[in-house]
Amino acid sequence: MWLKEYKRRLKEAIEEGKIPIAIERASESYRRNLQEAIERFPYTIELAQEVRAIKEEAIRNLDSLFEEAKRQFEKNRAKVFLARTSEEACEIIGSICGNRKVVVKGKSLTAEEISLREYLEEKGYEVYETDLGEFLIQITRQRPMHILSPAIHMTREEVSKVLSAYLKKEIPPDIGEEVKAVREFLREKFFQAEVGITGANVVSAQTGTLILIENEGNVRLTSGLPSVHIALVGLEKLVFSLSQAMKVAEVTWRFANYTMPAHVSLVSTPSKTGDIEKVTTFGAHGPKELYVVFLDNGRRKLAQDPIFREALYCLRCGGCLYECPVFRLVAGRFGDRYFGGIGAIWTAFISGDLKKAAPLAWSCLTCGRCKLRCPLKIDTPQMCLHLRSLLVDS
Amino acid sequence: MGLLVPKPLLFLRDNILKKGSLLALPKAKWANDLNLPKEGEYLLFGGCGYQYLNVAKTFSPIGQRMEGLGLDLERGLRFFKWFSPFLRFFLSGRNPLRSALKVLSEEGIEVSYLGEEEPCCGGPLYFSGFRKDFLENLSSKRDFLSNRKKIIGMVPSCCYALKELWGLKDLVEPFPIFWLKNKKKKRRLKEPLKVTYHDPCILSRYLGVVEEVREILWDIEGLTLVEAEASGEWANCCGGGGGFELVFPYVSKELAKRRAEELLSTGAQIIVTACPGCLINLEEGVKALGRKVRVLDLVELLEETEVVA
């Protein structure tokens, strides 16, 4: 029973037949690009080993890292919250938004985890996703199919149809034209918006610094133009120092196939100036207020688990998904909020429950290619086997 | 227990716990006429996968087709149970284990075999999450280990279970490793062939056996090895792994087709692999593509070669 509906969806995806073509293209270029990137920056492999140790240490000390980050961000004149559940996180962010009605958003898997956009839209906010892929997902009312390329399953022809209908003018099936049309549309939204919401790829506790990695430039605009910047951050993103955080960031973007990202933002304080009489005044060209909302939602408990805590080391580079034979066939249908084998673990302990995770746990071939690709060598197949034994005992 | 456990896996578990094997059928029928000794320094560990190869090969496409037509596999399973007294007729026929014995004896290596007394390695219990059953099942079965110099593991997942989970480490050797260490004679194909090799997940990524198989193949006269783009430790899965083929037969067959396609694109005349699961799935994949290329186990390929005098 519990498996039937899931199996039906997988079969449907396979019969539809277009996912494999799109992902096959994406996987091939992922591998080619990554190989070139590693040849250009061969130290990345060693750096990844170092990052594994950094993450192990950070997850061991999650509580004290949070205390340190809170202290430092507050010194930086940011306001810090700790949300225990996704509901709490939504409420906190809703109350910060208050009567500011237009919100722009950067892509954030953590926001996806708590269904933040849906929550805000229900409360009457006008929310715009500003990442191109995420924007396409929003206007087609679908679920993202990949953590970094949410619209990985859509071809340029489909995008042209979708955009033409939404923008009410003819957009040709040309990728350049499509990008330009979305840029024009979103430009004014950035200026209208009073709140910008982003995630963060990694956070330095010692300095109170968010690191935001991106290619499109939308995150800089989202975090820079509106008068309020809210960052929603999973607790597992914390590491101790800024130099550690930069190492984590570099391994993340390299394996996320950015080679070098177009932009990396370090955000520590609200925008400020001391140009008149050396008096620090907040709210210069950028946001006047900075809020950091840390999300627990099961992370602190998971960090105590000797087997499954490894799932918290995940940098969300998405490399494993390109290697997963099942994902390559059915994309995000092998997943819930989080995808693939690692997604089974996150679904079980963070974004869902054992019941939601069950079909995913059995969908893992345990073939081991994800582990081979993972920069941190996270043993997802073994965790899936452990998850199965939890299901057996449940 | 087991509300969130797929029924086919519960079926296998019950078989292992009650009858000591995956399908609760006689294991040694393939070797009935061979009178193999039970004692000896070299023990061939056949494994359910090869011992039941012909049953599995007959019934796995049925499961896949049923799902493809939208029929309920769980009902099929009940049918299978009801049918099981007749299944023993499918136990004989082609069997790579016979090929293994033949090529080993050509090297002057005689092996022992436990026949019906061969214990189940428990691997399927472990891979299906029946961890407690696996551990309980483990302790009682170690008698057969005494006075053995090597256990030659034929099924990769049995090798993994015995080596890593039973903790037998060096005592157990996957066939390709044992063969490479012990063979002395040069072999050649009767006529030149282009061959591609599919790395089984457990053999390559779990046990690290990648180059050894290639050394065996390179050493055969007349054999040209053509590698698929995804090969070695990066080989794609055939779609059957960890019980997946039983829970998701339809998806499994799709994956098999895709892997078969990758392997066929090398232009090989024969696909070689070294795992009963891969053997079954790749054969189905090749068939589904409407191709006639043979899929052979490594030991079957060796059997087709002749010793160079």
Report the span from N to C terminus of chain A.
17 Å
Low-confidence stretches of chain B: none
Number of DSSP E strands of chain B? 8
Q: Pair with the most extensive interface?
A: A-B, 36 and 34 residues
Strand fraction of chain A: 5-15%
Gyration radius of chain B, in Å? 19 Å
Mean pLDDT of chain B: 91
Low-confidence runs of at least 5 consecutive residues of chain A: none
Q: Please state the average pLDDT score of chain A.
A: 95
The percentage helix of chain A is 40-55%
Structural class of chain A: alpha/beta
Count the E strands of chain A: 12
Q: Tell me the fraction of residues in β-strands of chain B, as a range.
A: 5-15%
Can you tell me the overall shape of chain B?
Answer: globular
Concise structural overview:
The complex is a heterodimer of chains A (394) and B (309). Chain A is α/β, with parallel strands linked by helices and 394 residues long.
Task: Describe the protein in words.
The complex is a heterodimer of chains A (394) and B (309). With 394 residues, chain A is an alpha/beta fold. Helix content of chain A is 53%, strand content 13%. Chain A has a six-stranded parallel β-sheet with strand order 1-12-7-4-2-3, sandwiched between helices. In chain A, strands 8-5-6-9 form a four-stranded mixed β-sheet, with helices on both faces. In chain A, helix 3 (44-60) packs across helix 12. Chain A is globular and about 65 Å long. The mean pLDDT of chain A is 95. Chain B has 309 residues and is an alpha/beta fold. Helices cover 47% and strands 13% of the residues of chain B. Chain B is built from 15 helices and eight strands. In chain B, strand 2, helix 8 and strand 3 (172-174) form a beta-alpha-beta unit. In chain B, helix 3 crosses helix 13, helix 5 crosses helix 15 and helix 9 crosses helix 11. The longest helix of chain B has 16 residues, at 53-68. Chain B is globular. The model of chain B has no long low-confidence stretch (mean pLDDT 91). Classes of the chains: A alpha/beta (394), B alpha/beta (309). Chain A binds chain B through residues 2-3, 7, 10-11, 14, 20, 325-326, 329-330, 354-355, 358, 361-369, 371-372, 381, 385-394, and chain B through 1-6, 9, 67, 126-132, 201, 205-206, 233-234, 236-237, 239, 241-244, 247-248, 250-251, 254-255, 258.
